[in-house]
Amino acid sequence: MLFHFEKGWKATQSFRDPKELFGDGTINGSLCREWFARLKSGDTSLEEKPKRYLPSVFDDQALLAAIEGDESLETRILADNSNVDHSTNVCHLKKLGKIWKLVGWVLHKISDNNKAERVRIFTDLLQRNERGSFLKDLVTEDKSWLIYKNLKRKKVWVSSGVSPKGTKDVHCKKALQCVWWARSGIDHWEIIFNRISCWWNGNDEHQQWRIPDKNGKRQFNNKSDVYLPQLDRFHAAIETKRPKKNNHFTIIFMFLFFYNK
Q: Which residues are in the Mos1 transposase HTH domain (predicted)?
């Protein structure tokens, strides 16, 4: 470009010449104009000068003091308070060695309407219990797996590069325990093992019932084939242990658990 400048060429001509010789991407027009302006000013040095950047006016100490005062401040709130872009705050916080991490659980702030609604519900429940046996009629149901044969892994000696043989039927043997209880104690319980439900009736007689197959296959629906018959048996047990009066009802809290055995 110095040769072209001394010959009196223009920046556009100097840009086209190397482009025709070496192809696209060799040099661009803005760079040619920049160099020609530099040569016109009398600077014929071909050494590239360091670029000038605007000095940073960001106050890192003010940012550090803000987050030390309140560690939960978000960068967008900091951007609104300091009139600085959100991404700028993020970059400077990283330079300061700060990382945005989760802390312990924090309770959500509830409004006055939420507080009043909770007080109303609690008061209504207490009044219902005073008028009748509301809390005594509450029944909770839950299920839990009972593992009676649990397998554990063991180590064996094998040659290098050879994988050990797998173990067949590695699934744990377990039974499903279902319990219904209230304030007075346990009303009914069952154990499901190998698709057979076992329980004891009001006369302490052992009873069992097999989950039916569908179309000759070992397939069943948890809701219709397991839970509904359980509710019938629970209803019979609670009628025997705690006979209801007229217009009384029982509220059941059930925790559904899928049985696939």
A: 1-43
The Cβ of residue 143 has, within 10 Å, a number of other Cβ atoms equal to 17
**What does the pLDDT look like over 177-196, one tens digit per residue?**
889 888 888 888 899 888 88
Three-class DSSP category at 48: coil
Q: Which residues pair with 134 in a beta bridge?
A: none
Give the integer Cα–Cα distance in Å for 213 and 219: 6
The continuous run of DSSP H or E covering 208 comes out as strand 206-210
Total count of residues recorded for the chain: 261
CA–CA dist 222, 53 (Å, integer): 70
- Is pTM beyond 0.85 here? no
In Å, what is the CA distance from 207 to each residue of 134, 197, 199, 233?
31, 8, 5, 11
Given CA atoms 12, 14, 19, 21 in this order, what sign does their dihedral have?
positive
Nearest to 261 by CA among 212, 203, 199, 192: 192
Tell me, what amino acid is at 4? H
Judge whether 175 and 198 are in contact, CB under 8 Å: no
